[in-house]
């Protein structure tokens, strides 16, 4: 099996449930409070660890209680920690999330140590990274670092998977270094400027990214599955119908499933099918990382659904 590396964010989510959001200057009483490990990088690493991948995490935490909790969580889920640094004098990345009775939310993100993942940190960990084969990136660390790392890794012959989330416009030169990009509908609209109203629009947007240099565009479409756009094809890979409870980090689970299947030598269509299954299962329980499936669950799920 190929070795995998996740380069990205590590956040602790601080979640408060309220009956309604407070007005400016108002103090209200919340109903519940909980902390959950999150951040797109950490989510993908934990999902991979649960599947049984050989996965290294490259990222930073603060020298605080959240950092300590997160390190323990990564270790418990089988993630290799050699590339995770505790940064002095800065907080761990956090997301303060208010959720009201209708399910709407307000979110404030403080990048903290994630903002310190710079070019020097990539160089510091290069000896670990060059031993890996498949790399996953997201956009919750500085974009300069992402661009620097993918260019350096591509020159070294590595496989690059980019989850372009949160949605933002990217410089054209990044696309030349991407083997697989996995946007959802909002993200592909932001990347291309093409409004997605139907499958034809999605096809146009996918091929726009291919012309920019991306080898494979995998457009995530939720319960519909995913669409693969290449230089000479556009294919729908159907998803799986489940009773969704919480879709938090379903996209991160998808990316982890896809990378895991690729690492096992599966073809791209089979890898997308596996990713669809991992993403679907992750929505059937509450929480992000806590709902991510183990390999046996995924194999059983696929076996039952694809008879």
Task: Reconstruct the topology from this structure.
Layout (H helix, E strand, L loop, with lengths): L3 E4 L3 E7 L14 E7 L1 H12 L3 E8 L2 H12 L3 E8 L5 E7 L5 E6 L8 H6 L1 H4 L4 E4 L5 H13 L3 E4 L9 H4 L4 E2 L3 H8 L6 H14 L3 E5 L4 E6 L2 E6 L11 H14 L4 H15 L12 H11 L2
Parallel strand pairs: 1-4, 1-8, 2-6, 4-5, 8-9, 9-10, 10-11
Antiparallel strand pairs: 2-3, 6-7, 11-12, 12-13
Helix pairs in contact: 1-9, 7-8, 9-10, 10-11
Written description of the protein model:
The longest helix is centred in the last third of the chain and has 15 residues, at 268-282. Helix content is 37%, strand content 24%. It contains 11 helices and 13 strands. A 9-stranded mixed beta sheet has the order 5-4-1-8-9-10-11-12-13, with helices on both faces. A 4-stranded mixed beta sheet has the order 3-2-6-7. By secondary structure, the protein is an alpha/beta fold. A hairpin with a 2-residue loop joins strand 12 (225-230) and strand 13. It has one domain (4-10, 39-92, 112-305): Ribokinase (UDP-N-acetylmuramoyl-L-alanine:D-glutamate ligase, 3-Layer(aba) Sandwich). Pathway: Carbohydrate metabolism; D-tagatose 6-phosphate degradation; D-glyceraldehyde 3-phosphate and glycerone phosphate from D-tagatose 6-phosphate: step 1/2; Carbohydrate metabolism; D-ribose degradation; D-ribose 5-phosphate from beta-D-ribopyranose: step 2/2. It catalyses: D-tagatofuranose 6-phosphate + ATP = D-tagatofuranose 1,6-bisphosphate + ADP + H(+); D-ribose + ATP = D-ribose 5-phosphate + ADP + H(+). The active site is at 252 (proton acceptor). One of its GO terms (biological process) is D-ribose catabolic process. It is found in: Cytoplasm.
């Amino acid at each position: 099996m190929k070795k995998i590396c996740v380069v990205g964010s590590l956040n602790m989510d601080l979640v408060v449930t309220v009956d309604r959001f407070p007005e400016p200057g108002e103090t209200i009483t919340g109903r519940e409070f909980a902390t959950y490990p999150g951040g797109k990088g950490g989510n993908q690493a934990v999902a991979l660890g649960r599947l049984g991948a050989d996965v290294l995490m490259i990222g930073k935490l603060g020298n605080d209680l959240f950092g300590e909790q997160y390190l323990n969580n990564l270790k418990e889920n089988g993630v290799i920690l050699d590339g995770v640094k505790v940064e002095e004098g800065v907080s761990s990345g956090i997301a303060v999330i208010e959720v009201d009775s209708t399910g709407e939310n307000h979110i404030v993100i403080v990048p903290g140590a994630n903002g310190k993942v710079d070019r020097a940190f990539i160089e510091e960990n290069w000896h670990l990274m060059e031993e890996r084969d498949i790399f996953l990136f997201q956009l919750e660390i500085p974009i300069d670092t992402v661009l620097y790392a993918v260019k350096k890794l591509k020159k070294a012959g590595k496989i690059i998977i980019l989850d372009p989330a949160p949605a933002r416009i990217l410089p054209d030169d990044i696309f030349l270094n991407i083997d697989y990009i996995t946007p959802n509908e909002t993200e592909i609209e932001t990347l291309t400027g093409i409004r997605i109203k139907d499958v034809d629009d999605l096809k146009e947007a996918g091929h726009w990214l291919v012309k920019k240099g991306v080898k494979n565009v995998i457009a995530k479409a939720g319960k519909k599955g995913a669409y693969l756009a290449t230089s000479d094809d556009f294919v729908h890979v159907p998803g799986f119908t489940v009773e969704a409870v919480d879709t938090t980090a379903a996209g991160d689970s998808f990316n982890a499933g896809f990378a895991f299947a690729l690492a096992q030598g599966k073809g791209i269509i089979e890898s997308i099918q596996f990713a669809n299954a991992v993403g679907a299962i992750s929505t059937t329980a509450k929480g992000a990382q806590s709902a991510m499936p183990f390999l046996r669950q995924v194999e059983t799920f696929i076996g039952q659904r694809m008879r």
